[in-house]
């Protein structure tokens, strides 16, 4: 892939994805990353000093009015080649577990960040994704042509839900999965691939210290997995190592 936009790159899996991409034999030519607070994004800024392909855009993705600024920056840098991959990674997980502890604001905020943001950002990126698909028309459906990768969670799988609870988070990721499926159908004519990915249970601020996977293991395998995606994977739900998950 020549270009990729990843959201939420100042820590956790987003930062890990940036590192994993730059360890590829041929890293992307342009790696657009977002963070909410540039001053606090020390690790990301240090990485950008070492790797000139990293572009950092400071944005709170709930500020939809600022998407034009992000898109214009990508268009300017990619210079008519479009954007190969949008990786909707940024997300939140409120602490509320059971129905009795679920607050209205948790539901609204979680759906806004985990579901509404990926849709609106994908909509904003669509002209750039279409452009990349046209420019790379000799490639089959893949991240080399154009793709949308939605960071989901197995907690969004309705079939795998045996524990209940986590209402806002599960609902937000189940909805994101439904959106992945629809986008995969709607954008197939333009040869833009769309999948949901579960990163595994990973030791980040969100995943906590008891998680079995470290960031590097998860993100290295996510990159391997997405680099192997083709038309047969379009509209699917996969975990970090490529295994298919039930909706
Ligand atoms: P972290 O909490 O470590 O990082 C979340 C990232 O999302 C941060 O960069 C955060 O920015 C960013 N973010 C949150 N809200 C916004 C916003 N409104 N605008 C811009 N950026 C925002 O989480 P992880 O790295 O663990 O999770 C990344 C993704 O993986 C999420 O979608 C999560 O649901 C998913 N996931 C994680 C699992 C795990 O075990 N860790 C398991 C399954 C799925 P800031 O630093 O400014 O808050």
UniProtKB/TrEMBL annotation:
InterPro entries: Fungal_SecMetab_SDRs, NAD(P)-bd_dom_sf, SDR_fam
UniProt KW keywords: NADP, Oxidoreductase
Entry keyword annotation includes NADP: yes
Tagged with keyword Oxidoreductase: yes
Cellular component annotations (GO), alphabetically ordered: cytoplasm
UniProt cross-references to Pfam families, sorted A to Z: adh_short
Membrane-crossing segments per the record: none
GO molecular function, one term: carbonyl reductase (NADPH) activity
Organism superkingdom: Eukaryota
Family as reported in the entry's similarity comment: Belongs to the short-chain dehydrogenases/reductases (SDR) family.
The protein's name in its UniProt record: Uncharacterized protein LOC111605607
UniProt source species: Drosophila hydei (Fruit fly)
Lineage, opening ranks: Eukaryota, Metazoa, Ecdysozoa, Arthropoda, Hexapoda
């Amino acid at each position: 892939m020549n270009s990729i936009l990843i959201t939420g790159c100042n820590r956790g899996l987003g930062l890990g994805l940036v590192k994993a991409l730059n360890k590829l034999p041929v890293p992307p030519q342009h790696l657009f990353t977002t963070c909410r607070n540039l001053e606090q994004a020390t690790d990301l800024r240090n990485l950008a000093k070492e790797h000139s392909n990293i572009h950092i855009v400071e944005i709170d993705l709930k500020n939809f009015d600022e998407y034009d600024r992000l898109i214009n920056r990508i268009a300017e840098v990619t210079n008519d080649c479009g954007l190969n991959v949008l990786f909707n990674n940024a997300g939140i997980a409120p602490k509320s577990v059971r129905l009795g502890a679920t607050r209205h604001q948790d539901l609204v905020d979680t759906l806004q960040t985990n579901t509404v943001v990926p849709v609106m950002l994908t909509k904003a990126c669509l002209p750039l994704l279409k452009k990349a698909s046209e420019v790379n028309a000799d490639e089959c459906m893949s991240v080399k042509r154009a793709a949308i990768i939605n960071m989901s969670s197995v907690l969004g799988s309705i079939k795998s839900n045996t524990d209940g609870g986590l209402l806002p988070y599960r609902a937000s990721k189940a909805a994101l999965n439904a959106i992945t499926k629809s986008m995969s159908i709607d954008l197939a004519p333009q040869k833009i691939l769309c999948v949901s990915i579960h990163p595994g249970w990973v030791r980040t601020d969100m995943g906590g210290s008891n998680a079995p996977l470290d960031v590097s293991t998860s993100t290295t395998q996510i990159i391997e997995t997405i680099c192997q995606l083709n038309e047969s994977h379009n509209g699917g739900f996969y975990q970090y190592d490529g295994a298919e998950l039930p909706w």
